[in-house]
């Protein structure tokens, strides 16, 4: 895998949590080139917090130890465009006498565009080492960081647009900043916007990881803000205007 400490050089695999794992390339290379390289993140997988020596039951009878798993938070923007994360990890190598030493390495985690929370990326034999047993695997599970104004539903991006009652009645133009750095301009003039109304922009959502070139939608949900009070003179005018609106 490259980096420090001489970890095994095998590939890694990924899957949705609970799903079947599928290999997709060597860990020392970058099978999804062109992504940005993130700063190091440190992960310590040391089991020594349980006390001296090997953890109870680990490595006995030649059984493969349990995979060491850690969550890794990824921003929605990075899940949109893809990114390579460089992770500095530390594992424990146990010897037959019960002693142990720490070993560090740098792993490259290649996030593809469109990946989702819950996806699990496994590095075979990158975990703790026990005498007389196979080396443990190391895995990371993607957690999606909350976004400032988007919520994700599948491949769709949900955006809440807060507009005034005047805009709802007479028309509105809004600009939504997208994750690719562009803006989506939406103008609605031909109808009244009811509270909770939804406007869908095809293809302006997240990339579909299974279908190259396919994207979800941008779903704009309108929240209409009503005035707290209306002067009496204005009420009379509103009644006249709205009387013929139905």
TrEMBL record:
Q: Please note every region of biased composition (Gly residues).
A: 50-62
Name the Gene3D superfamilies on file.
Answer: Urease metallochaperone UreE, N-terminal domain
* Lineage: superkingdom: Eukaryota
Q: Which UniProt keywords apply?
A: Chaperone
UniProt region (Disordered), positions on chain = 44-69
**One of the GO biological process terms:** protein folding
Q: What Pfam families does the record tag this protein with?
A: DnaJ_C (PF01556)
Question: Which cellular components does GO assign to this protein?
Answer: cytosol
Output the InterPro entries linked to this UniProt entry. Answer: DnaJ_C, DnaJ_subfamily_B, HSP40/DnaJ_pept-bd
Q: Which residues form the Chaperone DnaJ C-terminal domain?
A: 71-227
Q: Can you name one GO molecular function term for this protein?
A: unfolded protein binding
Record's PANTHER family? DNAJ HOMOLOG SUBFAMILY B MEMBER 5 (PTHR24078:SF553), DNAJ HOMOLOG SUBFAMILY C MEMBER (PTHR24078)
Q: What is this protein called?
A: Chaperone DnaJ C-terminal domain-containing protein
Species: Arcella intermedia
């Amino acid at each position: 895998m490259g980096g420090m400490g001489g970890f095994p050089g095998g590939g890694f695999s990924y899957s949705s949590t609970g799903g079947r794992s599928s290999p997709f390339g060597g860990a020392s290379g970058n099978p999804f080139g062109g992504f940005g390289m993130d700063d190091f993140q440190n992960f310590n997988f040391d089991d020594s917090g349980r006390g001296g020596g090997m953890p109870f039951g680990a490595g006995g009878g030649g059984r493969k130890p349990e995979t060491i798993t850690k969550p890794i938070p990824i921003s929605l923007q990075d899940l949109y465009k893809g990114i390579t994360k460089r992770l500095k990890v530390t594992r424990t190598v146990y010897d037959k006498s019960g002693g142990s030493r720490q070993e560090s390495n740098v792993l490259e985690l290649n996030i593809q565009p469109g990946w989702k929370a819950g996806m699990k990326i496994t590095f075979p034999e990158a975990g703790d080492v026990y005498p007389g047993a196979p080396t443990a695997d190391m895995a990371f599970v993607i957690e999606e960081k909350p976004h400032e104004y988007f919520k994700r539903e599948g491949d769709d991006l949900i955006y809440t647009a807060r507009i005034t009652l005047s805009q709802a009645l007479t028309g509105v133009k809004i600009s939504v900043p997208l994750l690719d750095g562009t803006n989506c301009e939406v103008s609605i003039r031909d109808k009244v916007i009811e509270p909770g109304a939804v406007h869908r922009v095809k293809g302006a959502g997240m990339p579909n990881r299974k279908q190259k070139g396919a994207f979800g939608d941008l779903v704009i949900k309108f929240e209409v803000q009503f005035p707290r009070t209306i002067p009496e003179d204005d009420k009379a005018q509103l009644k006249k205007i709205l009387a013929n609106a139905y």
